[in-house]
Design brief:
The protein has about 600 residues and is an alpha+beta fold. About 20% of the residues lie in helices and about 30% in strands. The chain folds into 4 domains: about 5-115, Immunoglobulin-like (Sandwich), CATH 2.60.40; about 125-240 and about 305-490, TIM Barrel (Alpha-Beta Barrel); about 240-290, Oligo-1,6-glucosidase, Domain 2 (Oligo-1,6-glucosidase, domain 2), CATH 3.90.400.10; about 495-590, Immunoglobulin-like, CATH 2.60.40.1180.
Length: about 600
């Protein structure tokens, strides 16, 4: 038994509240090291009445198994003590807060004290499995040419960090039918507020839409029409920094040490000029000075702005720029204050790391999961990983967060801050299709960056911010229909949106996984090889299995004594022999019929 691998901290995320009557406990062990894990729980006031609950191995990476158990109570959970009973192949051990022992502990238990309402892990139901569509407003569609800046360049001009193309809010309104047909469920807009530069991340006025995009009433019209189509919309909240023309910063430039706002920023020396030598900035951009988000007046301004656009215009949430650089107390207070009034708003934080600091149940509902993006890129586009290595990364990523949060995790293949995925793939469309299929069938909320669905490419910023292609003859229509097909599957199949995840095949660059719930299961098989290959794919049940694209039925064969991936966790009752073309994907579904063997 690898005792060094055993871990349970007694704190989040190893223990958390699903609701006030349900505790979730998580435990890590070495891979394939245990034959059974159980949690033993009892009330502090009644230690004689112990309840032993089996744990389920829900994830497995290259080194570890991850176990999970739900403890349900008739009343809100409180004053519960617990320890773990771990059965290995040849020995049994017990884990308490005091460590491992060979005998069941009599003292030193882990303890959960009280189920407070604000500590429940809650993400909006609508956000779980949702299909997002990210729009960079200045480059999506020009619906009102009269709003375009005087130096606006022709639509489709090579993008730079300075030039304008004329995209606006009316252009988004004009294309809502297109987005609806694509299968989009929620729009995420990059900043729309009055700001310097075409990206609008250097805010001048948080309360008004930039005049290049329209005005507040045009934005209200956009929100109303998005909601009429059954879609939702979230805005980019840039609260880590402002532009140098923001009134409070302009006051500092004017009045220097006498400014009433000198504590709103991190001033390092006077006199202040527009220079990163005088104040802290986001990155090293002197035109975007960093706000002092620990300042109570700054915090209050941020909270007021967040509430204003929800209450006055009906937005469905916020994507919060560089959220991991903002004082954490801002997000804690925002969650408590806003969720009390608007419980179904969505809070999405930008971070480029694992994000656990933001995903503690007290701040964000989700993060922009660049770990996901990096893993898919390295497996499919760069071919740096084989299927085994890819699965290890994916499983390790899922193990970092509660299941409820994983279901709402924002899943990009690319964004306004990265190269396009097709660029990563060196223009190989079949690789993009594999990435899109994995993204659309994975746990979480996939995000399409505008234009990916019609074959847009581009290097890193600013090239990834090219104008959307609207001429049908220039669009990749076959790719567009493929995206629509994938979105349709995701919207129809509940087990893909909110079901469990298990890998069942890792051979070379062939990767298979299952999305399943108590009712149904979907099998996805991805061939990342540049040559055809036949896969023996294990399945849970003795049913009939169909290809969702072609309708082809696959013959179900007995497994005999053959071992498959994770056979020690899941019981496979049959297998399918599936021929795979080079760089291809198949999505299979079991019907609800009975035994066919």
């Amino acid at each position: 038994m690898n005792k060094e691998a055993i871990r349970h901290t007694g704190t989040y995320p190893d223990i958390y509240l699903k609701d006030r009557q349900t505790l979730v406990l998580c435990l890590r062990t070495a891979k394939k090291d245990m034959t059974q894990c159980r949690v033993v729980c009892f009330a502090r006031t009644n230690p004689e009445e112990k309840k032993s609950v089996p744990m389920e191995c829900v994830l497995r990476d290259g080194l570890f198994d991850y176990y999970r158990a739900e403890l349900k109570f008739r009343h809100p959970a409180r004053y519960r003590k617990y320890y773990f009973e771990l059965q290995g192949k040849t020995e049994r051990v017990y884990l308490s807060a005091w460590g491992l022992a060979e005998e069941a502990p009599e003292d030193g238990m882990f303890e959960f004290l009280y189920a407070n309402q604000t500590e429940i892990i809650h993400t909006p139901e609508w956000s779980r499995g949702q299909i997002f569509y990210q729009i960079f407003p200045e480059r999506f569609c020009n619906g009102t040419p009269a709003l375009s800046p005087p130096d606006c360049q022709e639509w489709g001009t090579v993008p730079t960090r300075e030039n304008y193309m004329g995209g606006d809010l009316q252009g988004i309104i004009d294309r809502l039918d297109y987005l609806e047909k694509l299968g989009v469920q929620c729009l995420y807009l990059n900043p729309v507020f009055s700001a310097d530069f075409n990206h609008k991340y250097a805010t001048i006025d948080y309360r008004n839409v930039d005049k290049c995009f329209g005005d507040n009433e045009k934005f209200r019209e956009l929100v109303e029409k998005v909601h009429e189509k059954g879609m939702r919309i979230i805005l980019d909240g840039v609260f880590n920094h402002t532009g140098t023309h923001f009134p409070q910063f302009a006051d500092i430039l004017k009045n220097q040490e006498n400014s009433a706002y000198k504590d709103w920023y991190h001033i390092t020396k006077f006199p202040v000029t527009v220079s990163d030598a005088c104040y802290e900035c986001v990155g090293a951009y002197p035109y975007m000075p960093k706000l002092n988000t620990g300042n109570v007046r700054v915090r209050e301004m941020i909270l007021e702005i967040m509430e204003y656009w929800i209450s006055e215009y009906g937005i469905d949430g916020w994507r919060l720029d560089v959220a991991d650089e903002v004082d954490e107390s801002v997000w804690i207070e925002a969650r408590i204050r806003l969720k009390e009034k608007f419980p179904e708003i969505f809070l999405l934080g930008e971070t480029w790391g694992t994000g656990l600091r933001l995903m503690d149940g007290l701040k964000m509902d989700s993060i922009m999961n660049y770990t996901f993006r990096d893993s898919v890129r390295d497996f499919l586009a760069y071919e740096k990983l084989d299927a085994e290595q890819f699965d290890n990364r994916i499983q390790n990523m899922l193990a970092k967060y509660p299941e409820e949060m994983n279901q709402a995790m924002f899943l990009p293949l690319d964004t306004h801050d990265t190269e396009r995925f097709l660029y990563f793939c060196q223009g190989q469309k079949e690789k993009l299709k594999l990435g899109a299929a994995f993204q659309m069938c994975f746990v979480g909320a996939p995000s399409i960056y505008y234009g990916d669905e019609v074959g847009m490419t581009g290097a890193n910023d600013p090239d990834c911010r090219r104008c959307m292609i609207w001429e049908e003859e220039k669009q990749d229509r076959e790719l567009l229909e493929y995206y629509r097909w994938l979105a349709g599957i995701r919207k129809r199949e509940a087990c893909i949106r909110t079901g469990k995840y298990a890998a069942n095949l890792c051979e070379g660059r062939m990767y298979g996984f299952i999305r399943f719930d108590q009712e149904e299961e979907i099998y996805v098989l991805i061939n990342g090889e540049k040559q055809g290959k036949t896969a023996d794919l294990p399945v849970f049940y003795k049913k009939r299995y169909f290809d969702l694209e072609t309708g082809k039925e696959y013959e179900l064969l007995p497994v005999g004594k053959r071992e498959f991936r994770n056979s020690d966790i899941y019981r496979y009752e049959g297998m399918l022999t599936v021929p795979m073309e080079p760089l291809s994907v198949k999505i299979l579904k079991a019907d609800k019929g009975g035994n066919v063997l």
